[in-house]
User: Fold this.
Amino acid sequence: MGLNKIVANADIAIQDIQDGMTIMLGGFGLCGIPENCITALVKKGVKNLTCISNNAGVDDFGIGLMLQQKQVKKMISSYVGENAEFERQLLSGELEVELIPQGTLATRCMATGYGMPVIYTPAGVGTEVAEGKETRHFTMYGEEKEYLMERAFESDYAIVKAWKGDSQGNLIYRETARNFNPMMAMAGRITIAEVEEIVELGELDPDHIHTPGIYVHKIFKGENYQKRIEQLTVRKK
Amino acid sequence: MPLDKNQIAKRIAQELQDGFYVNLGIGIPTLVANYIPEGMEVVLQSENGLLGMGPFPIEGEEDADLINAGKQTITTLPGSAFFDSAMSFGMIRAGKVNLTVLGAMEVADNGDIANWKVPGKMVKGMGGAMDLVASAKNIIVAMQHTDKAGNSKLLPSCSLPITGLRCVKKIVTDLGVFNVTENGFECIEYATGTTIEEIKQKTAGRLSISPVVKEIAV
Assistant:
């Protein structure tokens, strides 16, 4: 069937990812990250990747696993703390990092998915983020401000994690595990979605779908989700 | 005695208004949530995609899919809403968030803020700080008045890389409360046990003292 996008597993989903490609990876911290695809990328050993992802994982989980194997040439992120190997590679010059404001990162992905080549944002005006970039003044609701022009992000692959999906690639995310996943799903030249559950077509309420399947090219059911918690904070009963 | 972290948070909580949507940064700002006045409805925004952030979960009920921007496990409340990161910064950029509270390394007397990078040290990134300061209409900074070496953090101009220009409206430090005005910092309150002399001595930027300056009540 032409619209059945289900593949058997992560290894097959990522099999065409090649050295030197640019990939987007959804998630905020370790929340909502495509665990299965990261494991498969480590196994495949693909190298010189440029990764667009809000964070870079921790030493032994998430994108940190790819950093350990020196598979990442460049990280484009908003925040990269919590990772000693990352710091070592950065200081030794093995790894290139481009830090960009979190909202700019999200919106540059969103713009791609909406087919718009640039965005204008006030974030970073007057800072080193603005160096070499075009700025313009616009007035909104009577307030004039300076805005920075930022390019939409292009990537060879976007890899996202959703909660539920169907064979056509319709996706629903759960709680704050949504984060960057919907925009990245829209932005990839090819988008791979891993989900906790694949449901029958028609089971997802069309009113509740976050990412329509038109944006998704391959989908598979992930296995053995660890869903690690970075900062466990609780209160007593 | 200068204010401790909790007292700084408690003083900032006095700036909350019924019906406010508020974004609290990591560190002292997070503590403000503990001092929301009884009977006041305030919605906390977490920029990773949640409005209506509740307290930490009861032990054993933590959910890995439900965290705040500091990556801590949290809960939702009746009325909570989830959304993606683009919408999250959309509502910030569009000025829908009424109050933003964040920490800083330096604030200049024109309202410039530096809080993301120290040259020569490992740079972790700005996260959402640049987006927040570029768009928020009402920004309060919570910080110590001086750094560990005793140098003023209220400066004529920031020496560290800037996070945002002319955006800070108010600062609450361990020594006092300061408005950022066209004429620099204006001390409107001072901590019990500190003196105006001490505040003057520890403020490097332009400083005026409000004619109605008073002791902080926390």
User: Anything to note?
Assistant: Chain B has a mean pLDDT of 96.
